[in-house]
Design brief:
mainly alpha, 3-stranded antiparallel β-sheet, two-stranded parallel sheet, 10 helices, 5 strands, globular, transmembrane helix, transmembrane, AceTr, membrane
Length: 308
């Protein structure tokens, strides 16, 4: 029977010095696999990159940092769970909270965007306050806090932040807060203030978009078009240009349908639907993985196999 020394180095692979010691001291039929300096040199050459490493027969196991996981237990990038990249499974077993947060965001964005494009010549958007405070705000905030429990930092940041956005947006139109009344005699200040408010959210959204470039097309599209929505609405507020605001509303409607798609992708399964929504990785994500990881990992696995 062949066993592997349990003493591991910082990368999670066998320590060659301890392996040779165990080999020399053992006189039984039980042997210890000595990976040797060649494997150590190979792993050290990529350890500074802090990349995901695949090892074992048929790449069955994956090292993420210093932790080893079976590949079939890892979560891939998936818009239905707002997971932007390969991640280990959570230590707690909860239902996926991302769909309810995405659907709350999608519906509220759709309603507000319909007002922004002036559908049916409606100019007073106050009816969106109820949706913004409770579905887009409170429910999405709770979904974000739930994401903390399932150890998804990206989803927690996104859902809690946009839940806070909708709560703050609703507060602007609630007379008790006195925000609109403060600008009653200064309408230009109100427009400029709303422009700054929306611009800040555009910057934040574009920042989140940077963390989705290794995920899926619909995942990336959600944050990409949402950033454009905020930017157009900000420009429309600064310039007091109704046409630009309508353009922001059109992009917002598109964004809401993308958010619904992502949310429904997290709900659809072979058990509850005759079809499931596809999840297409970004071509750039596959290119980045192939160029930066596959070459080094293939050398690692080949060296590992030759040593065995």
């Amino acid at each position: 029977m062949e066993t592997v020394n349990k003493n591991t180095d910082e990368g999670g692979l066998g320590d060659s010095s301890s392996s040779r010691t165990s080999t020399s001291s053992s006189s039984t039929s039980t042997s210890v696999v000595d990976y040797g300096p060649t494997l150590q040199q190979t792993t050290s050459s990529i350890s500074h990159l802090d990349k995901i490493q695949s090892v074992g027969a048929d790449d069955k196991y994956v090292y993420i940092g210093r932790e080893k996981y079976p590949k079939d237990e890892l979560y891939e990038a998936f818009e239905g769970s707002l997971n932007p990249g390969l991640a280990p499974p959570p230590s707690r077993k909860f239902a996926n909270p991302a769909p309810i947060g995405l659907c709350g965001f999608a519906l509220t964005t759709f309603v507000l965007s319909m007002f922004n494009v002036n559908v049916r010549s409606i100019h007073i958007p106050n009816v969106v306050v109820g949706v913004a405070m409770f579905y887009g705000g409170l429910v999405q905030l709770l979904a974000g806090l739930w994401e903390v429990a399932v150890e998804n930092a990206f989803a927690a940041t996104a859902l809690c932040s946009y839940g806070g956005f909708w709560l703050s947006f609703g507060a602007i139109y609630i007379p008790w807060f006195g925000i609109l009344d403060a600008y009653k005699d200064h309408p230009d200040d109100l427009s400029n203030s709303m422009g700054i408010y929306l611009l800040a959210w555009a910057i934040f959204t574009y920042g989140l978009t940077l963390f989705t470039v290794k995920s899926t097309m619909m995942f990336f599209a959600l944050f990409f078009f949402l950033g454009h929505t905020f930017l157009l609405l900000s420009i429309g507020a600064f310039a007091q240009n109704e046409g630009v605001t309508k353009a922001g509303g059109v992009v917002g409607i598109l964004t809401s349908f993308i958010a619904w798609y992502n949310g429904f992708a997290g709900l659809s399964t072979d058990q509850n639907s005759y079809f499931t929504l596809s999840s297409l990785p970004l071509p750039t994500a596959r290119c980045i993985y192939r160029k930066k990881n596959r070459h080094d990992l293939s050398k690692l696995v080949k060296t590992h196999s030759s040593m065995e």
